[in-house]
Fold this protein.
Amino acid sequence: MLNDSINLTADDRSGYIRLFDAFPGNHLLIEANPPHYTLLAVTPQRLIEVGLAREAIIGKPLFEVHPGNSNDPSDNGPRSLRNSLALVLHNKQAHHLPVQRYDLPNDQGSFSEMYWRASNRPVLNQEGEVAFIIHTAENITQEVHSGRMAEKMKGMEQAYNLFMQTPIPVCILMGPDLIIEMANDPTLQLWGRGREVIGLPLEHALPEVIGQGYISLMDEVRESGIARQVYESPVKLIRNGKEENIYVNYIYQPYFEDRSPKAVGVLAIGNEVTMQVHLRSMANESEGRFRTIADQAPMMVFLADTEAVVTFWNRYWLDFTGQSFEQSLGRSWHDIVHPDDCEELLQSYFGAARSQQNYSVEARMMRSDGAYRYFLFTGGPHYAPDGSIRGSIGTGVDIHDRKLAENALQESEINLRNTILRSPVATCILKGRSLVVYIANTRMFELWGRGPEKLMDKPVFEALPEARNQGAEKLLLKVFDTGVTITANESAIQLLREGVLQQIYVNYTFQPYYHANGSIEGVVAVAIEVTEQVKARREIEQIVTKRTNELAEANEALTASNRELERSNINLSEFAYAASHDLKEPIRKMQVFADRIKASLGDRLSANERHFFQRMEAAAERMASLIDSLLSFSEVSIQPKNHEDVDFNELIDVVLDDLQLQIENKKAIIEVDPLFSIKGHHRQLQQAFQNLLANALKYAKPGGVPHIKVSCNKVVGKETPLALPEREHERAFYCVTVKDNGIGFEQEHADRIFNVFTRLPVLPEYKGTGIGLSIVRKVIENHHGHIWAESRLNEGASFNVLLPVEPWLGAK
């Protein structure tokens, strides 16, 4: 990564330029010689991106090589880049540009629309001056284009949705009669009216406002096209059946429709400020009462002396700024006001103070978390009981949401047309049931195969008669009538293009286009031609279908074979389980009857007869042990259906507790590293590791002290010595190793010892059934793991168990 600035000596210059020849990424080395900004070096990827040879770039001015598209005012890349380079030279620090449009020439003699994410970093010489600038760019054209279709569709409803969801009163009044065309819920609440007033003249909906000056003021705004504002203006309204005197702040803006140079109505935005006015009035009446009530107000309230020194801030200010009451006094508010708003706020305040007039001004205030929010400050003179001026009293109301809504409302109307015209996909608006072409961009005209002169302001199916009766007209009218959005992919339609009737395929979305009053005015159509993709996909589908049929036949045979194998395994498991249960009862009876006979004969048994009894009992015990092992093996042969959290630290503690007598008898030393938790079958895993540790104790060297180590580490499949399937190469496993210092075995037997009934030739005192390790392997396989052994004769053995860190797909 390149630093924000790099110090470079003169001797480094040629080496630095050579470095660019092998440097990855999209970079330019630019000489700091404005206004030329000579190009000194370029990376190979940059040459590929811009489609130029190195000779066409090196030694030439930057803006001669990349002049930008002067015919399109939307291409502001050259201007932004010049400003960025100037900032780098002045500040000697890196500058990151926002996403920029910077078009490049194409093979057709025009320009391709391109978007870049770029930055410029200075390279300083020994004197600390900027010698070069490293320009780094990332081509994000595809990213921008792919995101625009969804963004454009959202913009179609933005104006209406923002209008209706704005949390402050907003309404539109149309024509000389000031018809209420649209009013959101906060407006209706302020008026004390319901939605029945929509569509009525203002003087009919609110007859009590006649003669209060508001209607004449709005007429003036509509006729002059100049916005007006009123602050703390009194108005009488009948709300809930009672006449109320309230105060309002309102902004009246002229409302224009497309192509209309004259305002056709008034956009009114405001809010009620009755409480602020009453608070200020009460302050003049009773200081103590004022302060008590002010602390309960949902806004900033303050008092200041004649020198603008604050003597009181209410609780709202203290909570918002995080200041204590003592910190808030004086002129500490200087640090809270946004630097760009401070001067205007001071001018309004001091001007009003000198003239003893009311004032109103907006300013951004810094919240305790560092975020700025817009507030509307209103205030005026604060009088003493004797009529003298004490200073001023004011309030600050949070209008941040209102400001955002105002900006969005203003921008949405402008952006709608621009969004459509600049959309990277074919887009148009069709108005009325006649579906008249109201707006369409170049890509839509290209899809239709006609120019704007043949389509604009005409019913689309009159201008495209061949498109009738193909289904599109019916769908468009359905959207217009019902307001339901319709989307389709790879829809076929025949259009006359270049004099030839062609069948093309398009992905399209038809969405209702709403008027400001909420009624459906037309349909927004967005389309992308996918003819080539459909043809290519169909060719591929034919190939895939043929191959799929071949694979299906092979899979059918394999599936039948697997079913037969699974049935055989189930039958074998059930047989082993049933057989083991049936064998246990005769063995138990044989042991019981042998004990009774031996007890009844007592001392009459000869030494030889006692020896025979001992051999019989030992044989019965071995048989019972073998049957128990077979039962265990048949149980673990069945895949457990449910898994649970298994803490291996607790599991090993339980195993060692079960083996405590053997450990004490052999004076064994057991070491266990910190282990892990996984999802698994607790009883099966406990049995598996009890078998491993029991084997380590059993096969200790005669007369030696068993030393057993249980260790664990985390690995991925490819790091193990096993030949795992490729899908497990990157899979994470816990590798648990149980290592002992016992008699061991030859490594050639390392795989065979996991087979059922396999016992290696060892001394007679090492007895077993040959099933214990088979059970271990089956349990590990049930948990989608692996096990292998490593050993040398008389040098101990290591058993390594791999268990997946994450549950295998399908495990519950």
Q: What stands out?
A: The mean pLDDT is 82.
